[in-house]
Amino acid sequence: MSVYLSLGKNKQGDFYHVDSQQSGRGELTCPFCDCPLIAVKGQQKASHFRHDGPTCNESLNEIPQIPAWNHFHLNYSIAVVEALKEGYQADSKSPNIFQHWKSKQGQISHLIHDELFKQDTWTDNLLFTNTSRIILGSLTLHDFSHWMRSALRDRIQILRDGIEEGIKHRAWLDIEAYRQQSLLKASLYLFEYQLDDKSIIHKVGRTQREPAQRLKETVLDLEKATNQSVVKSKILRVVTNSGHVEKYVFHRYSKQLANIGNHTEYLILDERSSKRLKTEFTKLANNPEPFNINERFIVTGRWKYEEKRLAASKRGIILTQRENGKFGRPKGTTLSSDDFLSKHSDIVACLEHGSSINQTVESTGKGRSTVKRVKATME
Ligand SMILES: [Zn+2]
């Protein structure tokens, strides 16, 4: 499959998907080479942007998928995912124990991965980590949110490191930041509808607008798709800044998903799953995890100005100081190893106590790449 450019950038640094554009030349330029773009809306090929000039190589790369958003195998092979499912018993008394491990050890030991299991030294059982519980859909929405936020922070850090090392085009950071902003800024909602025939349908989704306005639109969609009128509709739950959880709800509640017309985000819940979903939304809403400084950089849209800022600092104007060093340090200065370690003394303490990288990420809430760098600096 050939890859087509699907995102264009305007003068303000905002990104737009080709689907939101009219056919032909508009205001948008290529995020990588700034060449003006022409939206092509053909019948045969998927809609895409064509360069109004030579096509740059960077734009031929596929926009990377986001694990736990675009897919839930989290980059593990089918064999690993199948083994996990086989060793998972949702209704057992201890659903977190990987079953058959002891009996099948010989056959599956090559599938055992640090990130997926932790050994219970008392019982010699293998327990699922949060990562494997996401693949299985057994992790709660609240715990998923925490995991996902850390994974998103890591993705930004890795891109930043790559740009600093000169191996990544900066536009990849912009694209990632744009996508993360649209997830983290959005509210996650749970709507309920009652149809003519008394059936109850739920919908989960995300929006950056007023949920009430969104509810009205979905009522019209639902009436059109079902040929029934919606006699009652209400907002059951809204959780701000949690759009990143949306796709995981569909993954975790996949058995309750209903295909209505060409809509896939409606749910038909029995009493038990309805109660569970509402409780999960409540827990998510009641335990907000404030954005840290790196996340605020994304959510407030400040990432859009970083390119200009870097260009300016190259000219000798150190705008970083004007920002009170709010993100990063002025270019050309590095923290000494000692300063670096004392800045992350919580990570050092965890690692010195023999915690693994995963455990340290969990207990400090810091990104995996930071923990790895601290570990490398300590060695
Ligand atoms: Zn280009």
Automatic annotation (TrEMBL):
Superkingdom, natural source: Bacteria
Residues covered by region (Disordered): 360-379
Biased composition (Basic residues): 369-379
Boundaries of every Bacteriophage T5 Orf172 DNA-binding domain copy: 188-273
Name listed for the protein in its UniProt record: GIY-YIG nuclease family protein
Organism: Aliivibrio finisterrensis
Organism classification: Bacteria, Pseudomonadati, Pseudomonadota, Gammaproteobacteria, Vibrionales
